[in-house]
Amino acid sequence: MSPRPTPLIRSLLSGSSWVFLAEALAVPTGLITAGLLTRKLGTSEYGLLTLTATIVGWVEWSVASVLGRASIKFVSETSDWRPVGTALVRWHLILGIVAAVAVLLAAAPLEVILDEPGLAPLMQLMAIGIPIFSVAQAHRNMLAGKGDFNGRAASVAGRWLVRLGLILLFVEAGLRTSGAALAVIGAMLAELLICRCYICPAFIGPCAPMQKLWAFAVPLFLAGLSFRVFEKLDLLALKTLGGTSEQAGWYGAAQNLALLPSLISMSFGPVFLGMLGRELSQGNVDGARGLARDTLRAVVLMLPLPAIIAGSSLEITRLIFGPAFAPAASNLSILIFGSSAIMSIAVTSCILTAVGRAGLVLKLTLPLVPAAVVGHYFAVPAFGPSGAAIVTTAGASIAALVQLIVVQLYWGILPAPATFVRAVLSAVLAGTFAAFLPTPGALLFLKLPAACLIALIALYAFGEFASGEVAAVRAMLPRRLMPTRH
Length: 486
Fold this sequence. Notes:
By secondary structure, this protein is mostly helical.
């Protein structure tokens, strides 16, 4: 355990906290949106919307991952970001247009293959937003590489708030699924405009040579593409292997509720990679290694969070989506652990990327998809949606463990075994509390913080936190909240 948070850790926490607060807007806005859409559209139309968003979203994030982590690394290591920025926005625009055309052409065949009437026009509408999303991601990556976390947070917050407002406006106006699609496109445009208020790379002008960046980006892209396929394969496998639109709607609802660990990794992942790149470029290897070790420890200590959500899954689904979506609870209680494993993978991938092991990231990621295909082929017909969730969670957990071992072998860092044990024990205590204390309705919002407090108290009682860490936290609290001695 660390005696006291280092300046790098404090900087990471400061930067990622603003981004996390912005990304965390996805929770209230997403829950409001999901609650509205499930009630307005019903299970079948909501399932169609979820399936369409899954397919197009996979394409968007695959395009963004072509240069994503490589962009952050190279911007963080250069003294003049402008030539690199011009090259990045050009290539993101080109890739976005190519991907949009591909989706437009693939929409009709996919509608036939998946036997889902109405899929093609909705996919074609959502394809319009792919180039906008791609260019916006280029700007966000540059902000992360430059260390401008406020700009990144502002753009993310703007996207979620505009998305909520437009969905409420368009769906209430009777546009239904097409209204939701138009709202998502409008939110992407708002994010891009906000980004350009903070950083404004030229689309035309001199740009940096891309050979070195492409050599680094290609394996990272293939790894990201493979991982995105793995993440979204479960819903597609469920639908292809006999699942109904109603089951797809339940499963999509569970996926939406399992987003919290992913939001955390999306918040500090780019910040973390940018900081590692800057420290290593300045020769501060020991500082970068300490930052990576402390970040991995923080990921392990978040294990009680999925346990709490799993223990409260039925109450969460009923409160957010209504009784009709109660079957989503069993899927949520499984998927939330897979989402946490994915958070660990995101951190270890950033570490391997920062130390120049892009090829190794690819080698560790490629086996995920074929293994998941085989798993879904046998599990989905036998166990339905639960089988799909089990395959996804098991695959992510195994991959997370393997990458932790690889990071230990290549860079000699790993959280202490005692930290794993304490985190598991705390997760059992907090998860048991959540599962065996029924809380009807809005009382759930009291139980969840109470369960988190139980986990923190347990970690403290088990001796996980050093005196220096406790003192640092106490120093950040308002003086009136701290006990005084008389």
